Amino acid sequence: MKVVSLVTRLNVGGVTRHLAWLTGGLRAAGHECHLIAGTIAVGEGESDMSYFVREHGTEPEYLPEMGREVSLKDAAAIWKLYRVFCRLQPDIVDTHMTKAGVIGRAAGFLYRWLTPGTLVGSPRRVRFVHTYHGHVYHSHFGALKTKAFLYVERLLTRIVSDRIIVVSPLQFEQVHQDFGVGRAEQFAIVGYGVDPRPFDNSEARRNELRDELGVAPQDVLVGLIGRLTKIKNPNLFLQVAALYKERYAASDDGKVKFVLIGDGVLRAQLEHEVRARDLQGTVVFLGTRDDPEVFYPGLDIVAMTSFNEGVPLALLEALMNRRAIISTAAGGSPDLLGATDELVNVNDAAAYRVCERGILLDKPDADAYCAGLRRLIEDKDLRDTLARRGYARVHEQHTSDHMVGEIFRVFSELAPERVDMRVKPA
Q: How far apart are alpha carbons 256 and 209 in whole angstroms?
């Protein structure tokens, strides 16, 4: 089977890791994989993560005409990609992220139908799969731009897409039922996966980050991991840090530090806010790190504050390291954290939920977030219980090998004549 994967950009984040594991796993199973990527938005604080793809055996090709923003270059990107398809003759075209989904399927429509065989009812036999890692139908753009993206997506799904992969049941409800994209039978739900091997014996590395930061064993580290961009809502993290310091710092036996791991366009603004709120001793910026096997074990609690997500890789990796989680109800996080065991009302407008595998905030409310965080910090037994349940869940359903196997099954159903069904991904 010959697969061409297309992604808007190989920046630091879960999408790049997902593609590295997917292309590496399919190659290990004997399939031919090509990965084509657009350009990194350097001016927006993004960092290149293509090295991670190379480490997993795939050398990406680049389509420099494909940038993040809509421009006249998009037409050139579509034509150039059509020529790439003519050269590679893929069985499966697999697109990731919104821009690549539009460019890839527009070029794919030309490739499928712009052939002499169309005159006798035989277009090229190629199948198209688009994967939602998140979506842009709320919290990203203004109303007009959002409507335009949604119209284009509905059109491409109807005339090009053979399968739509979503990463959680909740995302299926949002994309298909709430926003009216596609037919139910077009969808496959394949949860994100993470590679557990780098995190073997993680507790042995417990003190590496903590020694780097000079924190005592009784101190609690709360980490936010991800790009510092508007959609990730890191301002809420700082609001919670300020509230926590105001309310509880005097009564805590150990110190609580708030650590931001990642970089992005909002970093300078956030650093200014830390100084303005006098949080220099409470909040630490570590920038982009490529040693998750070190920083996860050093943390006690992993936080997520996003407005919109797919299934956050940071939460999966946190659970793989037996870390406790507190998260906003963005994307697939409610599915990941499980059923509600206890609902705690904090004020008239907000509450937090103690779920099977973490604490969940229905709304990004700083008071409720601070109260839920305080609950985790005070109750180590609760932290350990939630983390233990989460670890069992990710090992059962969210390893990278499991994810590759599920995607392989989707591809093989679309192109069964090209697949030896006895071959399974490593």
A: 15
Q: Where are the beta strands (DSSP E) in 265-377?
A: 283-287, 301-304, 324-328, 340-345, 351-355, 359-361
Please check whether residue 169 is in contact with residue 176, taking contact to mean a CB–CB distance below 8 angstroms: no
Instruction: Determine the Cα–Cα distance for residues 112 and 280; give it in Å rounded to an integer.
Output: 57
Residue type (1 letter), 69: E
pLDDT in tens, the chain (426 residues): 999 999 999 998 889 999 999 999 999 999 999 999 998 876 666 789 999 999 999 999 999 999 877 788 999 999 999 999 999 999 999 999 989 999 999 999 999 999 999 988 889 999 999 999 877 666 556 778 778 888 999 999 999 999 999 988 888 998 999 889 999 999 999 999 999 999 998 889 999 999 999 999 999 999 999 999 999 999 999 999 999 999 998 777 679 999 999 999 999 999 999 999 999 989 999 999 989 999 999 999 999 999 988 788 999 999 999 999 999 998 789 999 999 999 999 988 899 999 999 999 999 999 999 999 999 999 999 999 999 999 999 999 999 999 999 999 999 999 876 655 334 444
Strands 187-189, 220-225: pairing kind: unpaired
Query: Which tokens in the block code for residue 121?
Result: 């009812």
Place of tokens 């075209």: 93
| Cα separation, 6 vs 306, whole angstroms | 25
395 burial type by CB count under 10 A (0-12 exposed, 13-18 middle, 19+ buried): middle
The number of angstroms, rounded, from the C-alpha of 227 to the middle of its chain's C-alpha atoms is 11
DSSP, residue by residue, 106-158 = HHHHHHHHSSGGGGGT-----EEEEE-SS-SSSSSS-HHHHHHHHHHHHHHHH
| Domains of the chain: residue spans and CATH | 2-193+399-418 (3.40.50.2000), 197-397 (3.40.50.2000)
**Predicted structure pTM score:** 0.86
CA distances from 24 to 5, 32, 48, 274, 287 (A): 12, 10, 19, 41, 28
CA pair distance 315, 317, nearest whole angstrom: 5
Strand positions, DSSP E, 178-267: 187-189, 220-225, 256-261
How far lies 343's CA from each of 46, 283, 352, in Å?
38, 29, 6
